[in-house]
Description:
Elements lengths: L1 H22 L11 H12 L9 H4 L2 H16 L1 H11 L6 H11 L3 H30 L1 H12 L18 H16 L1 H11 L8 H24 L1 H4 L4 H13 L16 H13 L12 H16 L4 E3 L2 E3 L1 H28 L4 H12 L18 H16 L1 H8 L18
Antiparallel strand pairs: 1-2
Helix pairs in contact: 1-2, 1-4, 1-18, 1-19, 2-4, 2-18, 4-5, 4-8, 5-7, 7-8, 7-9, 8-9, 9-13, 10-11, 11-13, 11-14, 14-17, 15-16, 16-17, 16-18, 17-18
Amino acid sequence: xxxxxxxxxxxxxxxxxxxxxxxxxxxxxxxxxxxxxxxxxxxxxxxxxxxxxxxxxxxxxxxxxxxxxxxxxxxxxxxxxxxxxxxxxxxxxxxxxxxxxxxxxxxxxxxxxxxxxxxxxxxxxxxxxxxxxxxxxxxxxxxxxxxxxxxxxxxxxxxxxxxxxxxxxxxxxxxxxxxxxxxxxxxxxxxxxxxxxxxxxxxxxxxxxxxxxxxxxxxxxxxxxxxxxxxxxxxxxxxxxxxxxxxxxxxxxxxxxxxxxxxxxxxxxxxxxxxxxxxxxxxxxxxxxxxxxxxxxxxxxxxxxxxxxxxxxxxxxxxxxxxxxxxxxxxxxxxxxxxxxxxxxxxxxxxxxxxxxxxxxxxxxxxxxxxxxxxxxxxxxxxxxxxxxxxxxxxxxxxxxxxxxxxxxxxxxxxxxxxxxxxxxxx
Length: 427
């Protein structure tokens, strides 16, 4: 497991480095760019984050933007899918390591991988093509293609200097981009399950699908009235339709797309706090979004409920949650909190910066969101090289996944000796 985790983590690092080298080429940028800034941009693209230290619209040539778009697409499809596809198309049964890698990451063998990879690529092409067609009349070919891919992959990169702020009151753009964000965030497993259910291939939906749809709906619909109240000063001069578009997008984009139709520096402290929570939660496991995932949050909440009422098991929607899954959910939740605290502490120690903005930036990076309290570039653009490296590390770790990071550090061995029970007072 440790070897598999390291392979995944090193793969994303290698992609980020390769992208940075290409972005350093003279025909990739229109202004001087340091290798660190190129690495930051490449890491942000392949991790589907969207934090930028150079304005995407002005700092990169059309070739450079296509490099960024390619990195986003690789990150969206998943480079592991591309590895498996390469093995399959080569006609090889795969080396022992590839077979073990497949089994460890997907819980299946190579005979099942081709079907899954095909579905991932087909779904990606379908949704991105639909987004392109819908955005084409408003944005034109290149901008429509770029934003369709960026939105479905939950990347948050934009080829406009102000991101999507010029479209803040355009129902067509806001609803299209929102649809792509939510679709990408739900992921291939949810849509495959829905398709098989409604075509009669299976009798009922997986628990994963039910929880993903429920939590996604609750988080979006539940935060719309909250943002409406907390940002009433900002929204007061707008008509009802414009207000709805602003708060709808405000509730969707933190999980974890990173596009913005408003200036986040104008939001209230309450709205920023809610946004941080949404970024921390993220989207659905198996989708293109980051964060701890809505399914993890659901298990944590139901586990706490069971502990409070004194139940030994978690039973929900006709299913029982395994103890191993509960422990993994708490591990992800705890490790994410520890990484946020550690990153904020390190940056505050080396940078002369604001706590709220630093906290916002770190959660945005670890959850691969891309929202920032900077101006035309991210807040972290003003960090020292060391501070930028912390954010880069957070973005890569956020994309690879907390469990991957943990498993890459340790070799899991089953305990053969059972020690006597000890007692510790807590609370």
